[in-house]
Structures are given as C-alpha cells and as structure tokens.
C-alpha cells in the first residue's frame, strides 16, 4: 500500500468488549514515546512491520471494536494484526478471582484486554532499556535513540512521531551513541546481540508462550523479567508475570493483603490465578494499586551512565 494511501472507516470487531485506551496502554513507553501518542479519543501508533513502516490511528467504535486509519507500506500487514492488537485472542472467560479487590476491579474494568502485537524485537528493545534503571531514564533513552536513528512516521502522524529503527540499524548504532543516550555497555550489547537474531526472534510468536519465553531467556542479557515484559506485549500472554520488578510485588501485596510481599511471596500468592496472573496485575494497576503502596523508603535512583 503506498504511503499516501490510507484505509478509512475500517472497523475491527472482537468477540468481547474492549476498551481501546487501557488495552493499548502497556505499549506506551513514557508520556513522550515517539511511537505512541494519545490525542483526545484517538490512539496513534507507529510500527515497523516486515513489509515496512506503518502509522495507524485508532478510535473506539462501540463496545466491541475500533475504527482504524492506516498509512505507509506496512498498512496491509498491520491491518491483519488489528484484531489481535485489540485482544481478539485474549479469552477472559476462565478468569474467576475470589479476592474481593480483584472481583471489584474485574467488574469495574470488564473491557480491559491483553493486547498482542506480534512484534517481538519491537517489544524487546525498550524492555532491555528498562532493565535495572528508573523508568524515567529508560523512557528518555528510548526516545533519544528512536528519534535519532528512526525515521519520520508515514502519513499525517502527530509531530515528533517516528518509526523505530530496523534491526539492521540497531546493530550498527555506535557504542558512544548508546552512551549519549544513557545506556550502559551491558544493555547496549544485549540490544545489538538481539538485533543480530531479530528474524529468529520474530518466529517465537508461533511457539507456545512458555516455550517462547524459555527461548528468550536463553539469550545473554535476557532474564525472567525481560522475557515476561515481551510476552505480555508481543505474545499477548495473560499469565506472564514480571518477576523481579522493583515495585510489583509490593503493589500486589498492599493491594490484596494490606502489606508488603517479596517476589517469592507474590508468585506463591498468585499461583491459583494461572493462566491469568498478568491479567490480575493489570486490573490491580487499573484500579489504583500503585497508590496503595506507602510512600516511604528510598526511591529507585535515576542513574546517569554518561559521566562514566
């Protein structure tokens, strides 16, 4: 599809109610993500498909779908992916929590779905950037690198939106450019190694989620947390639990037990909710779970690697 062409009034329907904004929220990497923008009722996103870049604008269109406009050579390919993006493959019917807080959150947010982008490398790079650092620093690194090495978004995208770099470009980014973006050598090496395997990584979407995560974790620099973050977005895995997250165990603990938990305690407590543990975490967050954690103790430091 030529970059000057877009599809108007394309309606996507999914089997159950979907709230567009909350479903796609995990794909946004900070308020100034150059690949994701919310403009009133519309969600704008930019992606790099196998067939090329695409810009798409989504708006809610009834309780079970959305309306889409698409620009760029990747439009036809992205169009096929839209139902999965809106949670068409996310079956919530087996989710039957017993805890009153989860029951209430599920009642309040019945249309929160688990998205599935099908783009593994595109989810992997920002997840690596978020390893062991404050989110503010990781989002700034992502914004700088995408803006510096990506390309302008096709179509009438909001100002500043960019297509993320291709795997070939990520492989060639010099070490000093990662340094300028406040990315330490370990994370930079992980991104470059993953870029070298990008074609193989994309095929993981065809594997069962547990097997796909196991293969991800076999890569140097990719641990349990990073693999889960990718699985949540690229595979639409409603059970992928981000073990090792700096805040998550405490959020789950204070939301469901009224006190702190460590990772082992969180895993044990959420075990009965398989295969919907990530769904439960999303509902906890949507219902204000992060605000329930007492504001005391040291905050995650914002590390600046550029002076080292």
Automatic annotation (TrEMBL):
Its EC number is 3.2.2.21. Keywords: DNA damage, DNA repair. Transmembrane segments: none annotated. Gene3D superfamilies: Hypothetical protein, domain 2. The keyword Ribosomal protein does not apply. Signal peptide: none annotated. It catalyses: Hydrolysis of alkylated DNA, releasing 3-methyladenine, 3-methylguanine, 7-methylguanine and 7-methyladenine. The keyword DNA repair applies. SUPFAM superfamilies: DNA-glycosylase. This is DNA-3-methyladenine glycosylase II. It comes from Rhodococcus artemisiae.
């Amino acid at each position: 599809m030529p970059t000057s062409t877009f599809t108007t009034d394309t309606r996507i329907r999914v089997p159950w109610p979907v709230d567009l904004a909350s479903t796609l929220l995990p794909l946004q990497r900070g308020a100034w993500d150059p690949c994701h923008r919310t403009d009133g009722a519309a969600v704008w996103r930019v992606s790099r498909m196998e067939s090329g870049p695409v810009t798409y604008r989504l708006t809610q269109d009834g309780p079970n779908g959305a309306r889409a406009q698409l620009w760029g050579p990747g439009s036809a390919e992205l169009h096929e992916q839209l139902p999965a993006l809106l949670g068409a493959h996310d079956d919530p019917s087996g989710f039957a929590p017993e805890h009153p807080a989860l029951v209430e959150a599920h009642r309040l947010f019945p249309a929160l779905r688990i998205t599935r982008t099908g783009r593994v490398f595109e989810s992997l790079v920002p997840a690596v950037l978020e390893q062991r650092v404050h989110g503010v620093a990781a989002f700034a690194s992502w914004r700088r690198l995408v803006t510096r090495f990506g390309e302008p978004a096709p179509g009438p995208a909001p100002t500043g939106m960019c297509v993320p770099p291709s795997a070939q470009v990520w492989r060639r980014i010099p070490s000093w450019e990662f340094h300028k973006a406040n990315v330490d050598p370990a994370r930079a090496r992980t991104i470059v190694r993953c870029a070298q395997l990008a074609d193989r990584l994309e095929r993981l979407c065809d594997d069962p989620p547990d097997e796909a995560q196991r293969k991800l974790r076999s890569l140097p620099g990719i641990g349990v947390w990073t693999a889960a973050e990718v699985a949540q977005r690229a595979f639409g895995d409603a059970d992928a639990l981000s073990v090792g997250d700096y805040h998550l165990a405490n959020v789950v603990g204070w939301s469901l037990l009224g006190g702190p938990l460590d990772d082992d305690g969180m895993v044990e407590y959420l075990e009965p909710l398989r295969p919907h543990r990530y769904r439960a975490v999303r509902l906890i967050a949507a219902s204000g779970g992060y605000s329930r954690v007492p504001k005391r103790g040291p905050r995650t430091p914002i590390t600046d690697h550029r002076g080292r």
